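Regression test case RT-17, inverse folding.

Input:
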């Protein structure tokens, strides 16, 4: 599943292809080229794939029965995790080019190249995240992923600011803010963390729902997709409300906080109180 998930690297390829098409032929050419690629993919899928009968859901299982999984607290928790590690990845992949242009005044082609420093590792390294999750477990990987993300987003949240201190020699003005190099480095680290997190969340699913992985992964994947859809809208709303571009990272910082608190109370604390055997009883 990590190899499958590495297809997210297409978000990075988009950073190279779309700006070139945009500059060379205008924005109307972008959806035309992408539509042709999707049509070619559909043809290849039709010709070279097949159905595995043993993977089909029995006829007596209704769609409403499958949706009962939404009542499972663990499923909701994994949806929360995935809404940030995948949803945040998708949202930032869409948002970063214009962020670079607006915040640092870069040319769109340079901005796209730097944005790929986040989206490329965030896709390609998902397979490695799967290997590490198999080796160290979903809980350990996700716990560290969330903490690394929390630190990166905390630093990324600070807006560019100037402040003055009155000294004995008169006022002194200082500037605090990330330059483009530090910002890109933090985004690269965040991209790696999200890549590992996308894999570790699905490791949870394979561990806890191996008998029903299709439905559960579909629900969790939906939560990630909804996060990727809603966050850019919220980024824009916050930008309009505050005028601060880094408010996007403030929002994601809060989402990571919720995930960390939820994980602590349902997994970390339970393990500490009940012993290592409690890991399999997490809710």
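Golden output:
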């Amino acid at each position: 599943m990590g190899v499958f998930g590495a297809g997210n690297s297409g978000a990075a390829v988009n950073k190279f292809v779309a700006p070139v098409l945009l500059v060379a032929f205008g924005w109307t050419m972008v959806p035309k080229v992408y539509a042709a690629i999707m049509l070619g993919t559909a043809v290849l899928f039709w010709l070279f794939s097949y159905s595995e009968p043993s993977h089909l859901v029995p006829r007596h299982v209704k769609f409403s029965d499958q949706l009962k999984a939404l009542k499972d607290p663990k499923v909701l928790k994994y949806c929360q995790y995935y809404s940030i590690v995948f949803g945040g990845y998708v949202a930032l992949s869409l948002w970063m080019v214009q962020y670079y242009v607006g915040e640092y005044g870069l040319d769109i082609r340079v901005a796209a190249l730097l944005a790929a420093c986040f989206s490329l590792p965030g896709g390609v390294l998902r397979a490695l995240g799967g290997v590490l999750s198999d080796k160290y477990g979903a809980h350990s990987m996700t716990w560290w992923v969330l903490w690394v993300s929390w630190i990166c987003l905390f630093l990324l949240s600070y807006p560019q600011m100037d402040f003055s201190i009155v000294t004995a020699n008169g006022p002194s003005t200082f500037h605090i803010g990330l330059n483009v190099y530090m910002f890109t480095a933090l985004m690269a680290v965040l991209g790696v963390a999200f890549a590992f997190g996308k894999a570790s969340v699905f490791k949870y699913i394979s561990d806890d729902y191996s008998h029903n992985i299709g439905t559960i992964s579909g629900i969790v994947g939906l939560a990630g997709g909804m996060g990727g859809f809603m966050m850019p809208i919220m980024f824009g709303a916050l930008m309009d409300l505050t005028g601060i571009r880094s408010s996007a990272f403030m929002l994601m910082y809060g989402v990571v906080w919720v995930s960390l608190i939820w994980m602590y109370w349902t997994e970390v604390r339970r393990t500490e109180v009940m012993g290592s055997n409690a890991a399999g009883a997490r809710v």
